[in-house]
Amino acid sequence: MPQPRVRLIVTGDDFGYCSRRNRGIVECFKAGAVSNASLLVNGNSAQEAATLASRHGIPLGLHANLSEGLPVAQPLRLGLSLLNKRGVFHGKMGFRDILKSGAIKLPEVDQELRAQVERFRELTGYLPHHMDGHQHVHVLPDIRDVFANVLSDYGIRFTRVPIEPGLRDCHWISHQLMAFYREVEEDAFSSMHVFRRHGIRWPDIYIGLTTMGKHMAVQSIQAAIGNATASQRLKENSLDIAFGGEMGSVPGDGSLTMELMVHPGYPSVPQEGGCGEGPDEFSQSRERLNELKTLKDPRLLKYYEENNILLCAFKHL
C-alpha cells in the first residue's frame, strides 16, 4: 500500500456545545468524514460528548474556551477579570478588547486553562491528545505564553496554528471577517516561536477559515487542500516558518500533515445548548448543517481516496 501523500486531520470543533452538534459530529465520524474532535468542556452537552466519543472511538482534544459562557474554575465565577457584568466570559471580540486594555489577569487565565484540562480528564479518563483555543484565543499576545506553559506542564504535544495558505486571495469573504482573520493570522505567526520553545508541535498546514459555514462546499475544500499542497514548495525558502517550520509534525514517511477545522452539526434549538448562556446565532443557523452535508458528500470522500489523502487524528502523528 503506497504511503499517503497527505495526512489530513479533519477536526470537528465545539464538540459538547449541544446535543444537536454532538449528533452531527458523530454522524460525520461514522461516515469517515471527520477524524478528530475538539471538546468544549464548559459546553452544556460536554458529558454526553465524552460518552459518545468513548462509545464510537472518536479521538479527542481540548477546545480551550476563554471567550464564551461560564468558566470551569468555580472561584472565577465570582466575577473577576475574565467575566463581564453579566457574569460570563467577555465574548470573541470583547475578550480581545479587554486583553488589549491590560485588564485581563494572566494568573486567572492559567487557573481556568488548568481547570479545563482537569475537567477534560474527568470526563474522558485521559489527557487531551491536542489542545487549541475556541475562537483562536490561544494565539493572542500574553495568552499564548500561558497556554504554552500549560501544555508543556501537562505534556500535551500538539496545538493549532491558524495560518491558512491563500487566505488573502479569497474575495468572497467579507471585509470585516477578513480583517479578523488577518489579525488571527498575525497573532498565530507571532505565537509560533513561543510554542516551538516549549516543544509544542502543529501540522504543517492549517485550513478552515476559507471553508467555514456557508463558504464550505466540496469545491472549496478541494481548492483549499490544493493551495495548501502547492505551498509545500515553500519549504525550500525562508517562508517555510509560516507553514509549520522545523517543529511541524511531519511523519518520517515524507507525507504532508494538514488540519482542516470544521463545525458540522444540526442547527441548535434556541435556549438549548451553548456554554451557559444559550447557543449563539451561528449555531442556530443552517451553516452548521451545510458543513455536515458537505463533509459527508461522497464526491469529497472519493476525492480523498483518489488523491491519496489519509484522514487521521493528532494521536496518530
Structural commentary:
With 317 residues, this protein is an alpha/beta fold. It has one domain (6-316): Glycoside hydrolase/deacetylase (TIM Barrel, Alpha-Beta Barrel). Helices cover 38% and strands 11% of the residues. The protein is built from ten helices and seven strands. It has helices at 19-30, 46-56, 92-101, 106-124, 143-154, 175-197, 218-230, 281-284, 287-295, 298-306, and strands at 6-15, 36-39, 60-64, 131-133, 205-207, 256-262, 309-312. Strands 1, 2, 3, 4, 5, 6 and 7 form a seven-stranded parallel sheet that branches. The longest helix is centred in the middle third of the chain and has 23 residues, at 175-197. This is Carbohydrate deacetylase.
How would you summarize what this structure contains?
Belongs to the YdjC deacetylase family. The chain has helices at 19-30, 46-56, 92-101, 106-124, 143-154, 175-197, 218-230, 281-284, 287-295, 298-306; strands spanning 6-15, 36-39, 60-64, 131-133, 205-207, 256-262, 309-312.
List the SSEs and their pairings.
Layout: E1 6-15, H1 19-30, E2 36-39, H2 46-56, E3 60-64, H3 92-101, H4 106-124, E4 131-133, H5 143-154, H6 175-197, E5 205-207, H7 218-230, E6 256-262, H8 281-284, H9 287-295, H10 298-306, E7 309-312
Parallel strand pairs: 1-2, 1-6, 1-7, 2-3, 3-4, 5-6
Helix pairs in contact: 1-2, 1-9, 4-5
**How many E strands?**
7
Query: Termini separation (Å)?
Result: 19 Å
| CATH-defined topology | TIM Barrel
What is the fourth-level CATH superfamily?
Answer: Glycoside hydrolase/deacetylase
Function: Probably catalyzes the deacetylation of acetylated carbohydrates an important step in the degradation of oligosaccharides.
Protein name: Carbohydrate deacetylase
InterPro entries: Glyco_hydro/deAcase_b/a-brl, YdjC-like
Cofactor: Mg(2+)
